[in-house]
């Protein structure tokens, strides 16, 4: 029989205001196995912890239940306290009477009743707990960064600077990401390339950084400290090690009809191409869908003109396998498709563009050499309309419910830059709200509105109609309470951003969780914002949620620190809550093996002596070093042969019974 | 009945004559002409008792879990519907395929003696089938009826002949209000006498030790102490065979209380088809089923809410 101590925390008024603490304390005294029940204002404080330690010794407790906040918050704290008093740390159960109870109830009687149920559920489970001993596992001292934008580059640089090897996997032919496409950056208006390209070079030249561009992660297995990742290096059709990047091939290539991805399709590129002049690596890639040689078998001009003989039409995709201790997700974002927003005539008129397209038009290295010209007739525009929140904060289901966060600032930037360079252009901005918190951000917006004469109109645009070479913009001005019609030459849509489409498949491979918008979920929104709930997986940049460049860089460095902290350890304490199979009950059906996301289950043929006869049976065996204790196998096992230490079927049944009692 | 224009019994005799297998799993005549039972034949002369007629509804696949583990190759006669169960058991490594000679035989539907009696035909001495017509010898003389009218429930919606819509009844139950549905199942399941026949005949229920027989499972005793027991027993069984049930219909065929147990499994099958695309458990013996595999475009859990569930 266990000797259980129950400790009920007030959490100041967080719990005590809604739950009658005395009732819970008294009710627990009557539960089987409970020999001590007490309460304290802040159980997590040193004073609270010392009460727990003293009670363990005084009452010779074999296990404790702490009725307090979420185990995510303080399970570790209380486990440490129990351990300090000589108890096995897995003889600690948390009854979450704050998040699961006090915070979500108003009625004190109901909340108290529920708190009692939650507490006795934990007691019921603890009665069946057994001490568990964690093992250790080694740490591979190498990190993988997925995504080579500013987030990935910054994380990689910081990890590399701490002395660890880092691989950056980038799916595009060059690193740089979305930031490389930008013209100027708010609020200081320095040019994106001027601050990004030196970092790209630094990453490329760093001894500890290995760039794997034009590549994608194919599969991931393993666990924190020991991930095995297969990376598919797509065939560039150019030998990267001997190409000098002279660019003759791209000049001579006769196929020049492909839309330039880097310039948002505003101009064309050749079939063999380098995305932009400062690309890293400065090695071209052949777009096999566009290349005449690949389409017809004839041509091969690039191979003929290449002075280094670097063109290789026969190149195949290559799979690299590498082990990593930690993975940083920095997969970034893309603007949403505007198919659901016909009212803005994006598809109907070339002069309706997205903000990212405007970045390319304004960029000195862009398709117009930085001259602001209408895409349709290459004429100078006189009136421009910016529409904010296109697909952001959208409750109609056509776009995204969240705020894309960066649009208010970049629209102010665009408006200001245009007014500065071309004072003859009238600039109107339609907005729902202007949201510019951040250091020097609101001052920046006000400068646009007040000093640069940008006309901010509170209200949304209902329709953009292309009429006689102009764009009739119909919107509402909520402050003047009237409809406005503006005859514009160009319309710029501040398009919502969404996570890159690779996020979902990576989430599956890494068992990292994503939210309903496909942004990666953090382990704790406030206290662990750069860690994924999956151990050893860290989050950097917009893949976790919309953010601007300063925030992205800060988060990237934060993620790097977490990686460095992990890689600096030689051994990790492994989770003892792992699955195990009762071989006498196992049917050998393989269902657990199919559902195991970690590949931790193998089957062996084993001899059993049954009723005096030797019988060979196929049974499941769990590799405890690989098992992460997710419990999928226990659910799928029809005979109940699979069980999870610390969360046994019996313990869970006991909990259910305690709830239903 | 015949397969490839040969009587099945002849095929069985040939297996022994040509030493294709040491044993044959088939059917032998029971006490009455309509209660043929699964049987293992070990020698040619034992085949005198062999029978294959319109009363061989029982699915032989499950018997192979034990029989195929014994020494010596065993031949098994598989009706088209039994083939699914055989494949599923091979897939789950419950049958040693190497030790089995599967023989596929034709079937044009099996007869339910109770349905013949329900037509008011009494004193039945024997029944013979000629195509769609049954000739029934009774103490009161010869009677006739259409075979289609007296087929086993599971044969009415045969997966291999052009059977009826097997989900029609499921749809009717789905359309009930939750109160009606609850009443329907309470009323049906309260007939259960917990004889375990459904579990014992089910080819998906081959666990080394069933959770209902395992007092350590925390389920066995609980079930006995609660009047709601039989309902949960059948629900737990449906969940345990979910994604593996081939819809062979044996559960309902053997139920002495006439509970339409197969409808619970069909509801699961219908849902799986709707969520993951058409899937027939046991269509092959190696693929991984929808519940034990993951595809990126698998339905999200909110499908339950979107379908109006969870209320």
Question: Care to give the gist of this entry?
Answer:
Chain A is α/β, with parallel strands linked by helices and 661 residues long.
Question: How are the SSEs placed, and which strands pair?
Answer:
The complex is a heterodimer of chains A (661) and B (311).
Chain A: E1 4-9, H1 21-29, E2 34-40, H2 46-58, E3 63-68, H3 71-84, E4 92-96, H4 108-126, E5 136-138, E6 142-146, H5 150-161, E7 165-169, E8 184-185, E9 190-191, H6 192-205, E10 209-212, E11 215-223, E12 226-233, H7 248-252, E13 258-259, E14 268-269, E15 272-273, E16 285-286, H8 292-296, H9 301-305, E17 318-324, E18 326-329, E19 333-335, E20 352-354, H10 355-362, E21 383-390, H11 407-421, E22 426-431, H12 441-451, E23 455-458, E24 461-467, E25 470-477, E26 482-488, E27 490-495, E28 497-499, H13 502-510, E29 537-539, H14 549-567, E30 571-573, E31 579-581, H15 591-595, E32 601-610, E33 613-622, H16 632-636, E34 642-644, H17 649-660
Parallel strand pairs in A: 1-2, 1-3, 3-4, 6-7, 6-18, 7-10, 18-29, 20-27, 21-22, 21-27, 22-23
Antiparallel strand pairs in A: 5-30, 8-9, 11-12, 12-17, 13-14, 15-16, 19-28, 24-25, 25-26, 31-34, 32-33
Helix pairs in contact in A: 1-4, 2-3, 4-17, 5-6, 5-14, 11-12
Chain B: E1 2-3, E2 6-7, H1 8-17, E3 23-28, E4 37-41, H2 64-67, E5 74-78, H3 80-91, E6 100-104, H4 113-118, E7 124-130, E8 133-138, E9 141-146, H5 153-156, H6 168-174, H7 178-189, H8 197-201, H9 220-224, H10 229-240, H11 250-254, H12 262-276, H13 303-306
Parallel strand pairs in B: 3-5, 5-6
Antiparallel strand pairs in B: 1-2, 3-4, 7-8, 8-9
């Amino acid at each position: 029989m266990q000797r259980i101590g129950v400790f009920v925390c007030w959490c100041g008024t967080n719990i005590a205001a809604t739950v009658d603490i005395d009732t819970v304390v008294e009710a627990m005294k009557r539960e089987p196995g409970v020999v001590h029940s007490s309460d304290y204002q802040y159980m997590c404080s040193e004073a609270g912890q010392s009460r727990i330690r003293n009670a363990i010794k005084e009452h010779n407790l074999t296990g404790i239940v702490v009725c307090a906040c979420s185990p995510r918050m303080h399970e570790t704290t209380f486990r440490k306290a129990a351990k300090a008093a000589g108890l096995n740390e897995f003889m600690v159960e948390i009854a979450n009477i704050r998040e699961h109870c006090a915070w979500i109830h108003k009625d004190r009687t109901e909340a108290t009743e529920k708190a009692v149920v939650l507490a006795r559920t934990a007691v019921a489970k603890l009665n069946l707990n057994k001490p568990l001993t964690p093992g250790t596992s080694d740490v591979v001292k190498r990190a993988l960064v997925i995504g080579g934008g500013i987030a990935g580059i910054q994380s990689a640089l910081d990890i590399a600077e701490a002395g660890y090897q880092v691989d950056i996997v980038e799916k595009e032919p060059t690193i740089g990401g979305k930031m490389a496409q930008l013209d100027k950056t708010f609020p200081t208006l320095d040019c994106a390339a001027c601050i990004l390209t030196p970092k790209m070079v630094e990453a490329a030249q760093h001894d500890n950084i290995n760039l794997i561009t034009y590549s994608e992660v194919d599969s991931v297995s393993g666990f924190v400290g020991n991930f095995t990742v297969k990376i598919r290096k797509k065939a560039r059709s150019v030998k990267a090690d001997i190409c000098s990047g002279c660019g003759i091939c791209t000049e001579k290539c006769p196929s020049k009809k492909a839309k330039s991805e880097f310039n948002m399709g505003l101009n064309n590129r050749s079939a063999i191409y380098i995305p932009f002049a400062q690309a890293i690596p400065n090695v071209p890639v052949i777009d096999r869908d566009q290349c005449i040689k690949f389409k017809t078998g004839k041509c091969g001009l690039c191979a003929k003109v290449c002075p280094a003989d670097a063109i290789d039409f026969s190149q195949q995709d290559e799979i690299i396998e590498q082990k990593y201790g930690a993975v940083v997700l920095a997969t970034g974002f893309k603007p949403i498709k505007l198919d659901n927003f016909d009212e803005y005539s994006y598809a109907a008129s070339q002069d309706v563009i997205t903000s990212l397209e405007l970045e390319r038009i304004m960029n000195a290295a862009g398709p117009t050499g930085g001259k602001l010209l209408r895409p349709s007739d290459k004429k100078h525009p006189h009136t421009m309309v910016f529409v904010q929140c296109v697909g952001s904060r959208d409750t109609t289901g056509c776009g995204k419910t969240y705020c894309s966060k960066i649009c208010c600032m970049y629209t102010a930037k665009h408006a200001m830059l245009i007014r500065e360079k071309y004072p003859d252009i009238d600039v109107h901005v339609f907005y729902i709200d202007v949201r510019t918190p951040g250091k020097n951000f609101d001052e920046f917006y006000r400068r646009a509105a007040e000093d640069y004469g940008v006309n901010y109109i509170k209200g949304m645009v209902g329709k953009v109609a292309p009429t006689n070479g102009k764009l009739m913009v119909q919107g509402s001005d909520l402050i003047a309470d009237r409809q406005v019609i503006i005859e514009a030459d160009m319309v710029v849509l501040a398009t919502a951003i969404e996570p890159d489409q690779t996020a979902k498949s990576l989430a599956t491979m890494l068992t990292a969780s994503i939210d309903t918008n496909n942004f990666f979920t953090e382990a704790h929104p406030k206290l662990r914002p750069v860690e994924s709930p999956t151990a050893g997986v860290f989050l950097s940049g917009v893949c976790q949620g919309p953010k601007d460049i300063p925030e992205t860089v800060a988060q990237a460095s934060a993620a790097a620190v977490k990686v460095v902290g992990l890689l600096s350890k030689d051994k990790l304490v492994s989770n003892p809550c792992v699955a195990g199979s009762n071989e006498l009950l196992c049917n050998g059906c393989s269902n657990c093996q199919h559902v195991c996301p970690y590949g931790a289950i193998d089957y062996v043929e084993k001899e059993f002596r049954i009723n005096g006869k030797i019988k060979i049976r196929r049974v499941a065996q769990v590799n405890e070093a690989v098992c992460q204790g997710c419990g999928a196998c226990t659910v799928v096992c029809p005979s109940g042969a699979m069980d999870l230490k610390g969360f046994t079927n019996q313990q869970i049944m006991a909990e259910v019974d305690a709830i239903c009692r | 009945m015949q397969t490839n224009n040969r009587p099945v019994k002849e095929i069985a005799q040939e297996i022994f004559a040509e030493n294709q297998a040491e044993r044959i799993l088939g059917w032998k005549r029971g006490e009455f002409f309509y209660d043929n039972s699964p049987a293992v034949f070990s020698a040619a002369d034992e085949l005198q008792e062999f029978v294959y007629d319109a009363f061989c509804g029982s699915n032989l696949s499950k018997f192979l879990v034990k029989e195929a583990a014994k020494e010596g190759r065993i031949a098994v006669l598989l009706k088209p519907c039994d083939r699914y169960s055989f494949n599923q058991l091979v897939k789950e490594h419950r049958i040693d395929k190497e030790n089995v000679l599967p023989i596929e035989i034709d079937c044009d539907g099996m007869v339910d003696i109770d349905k013949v009696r329900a037509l008011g035909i009494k004193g039945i001495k024997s029944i013979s089938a000629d195509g769609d017509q049954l000739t029934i010898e009774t103490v009161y003389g010869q009677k006739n009826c259409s075979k289609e009218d007296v087929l086993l429930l599971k044969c009415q919606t045969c997966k291999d002949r052009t059977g009826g819509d097997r989900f029609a009844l499921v749809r009717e139950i789905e359309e009930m209000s939750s109160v009606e549905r609850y009443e329907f199942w309470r009323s049906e399941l309260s007939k259960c006498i917990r004889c375990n026949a459904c579990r014992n005949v089910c080819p998906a229920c081959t666990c080394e030790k069933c959770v209902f027989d395992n007092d350590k499972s925390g389920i066995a005793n609980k079930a006995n102490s609660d009047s709601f027991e039989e309902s949960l027993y059948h629900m737990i069984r449906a969940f345990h065979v979910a994604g593996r049930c081939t819809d062979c219909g044996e559960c309902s065929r053997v139920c002495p209380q006439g509970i339409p147990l197969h409808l619970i499994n069909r509801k699961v099958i219908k849902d799986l088809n709707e969520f993951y695309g058409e899937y027939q458990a046991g269509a092959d013996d190696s693929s991984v089923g929808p519940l034990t595999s993951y595809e990126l475009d698998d339905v999200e859990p909110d499908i339950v809410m979107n379908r109006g569930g969870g209320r």
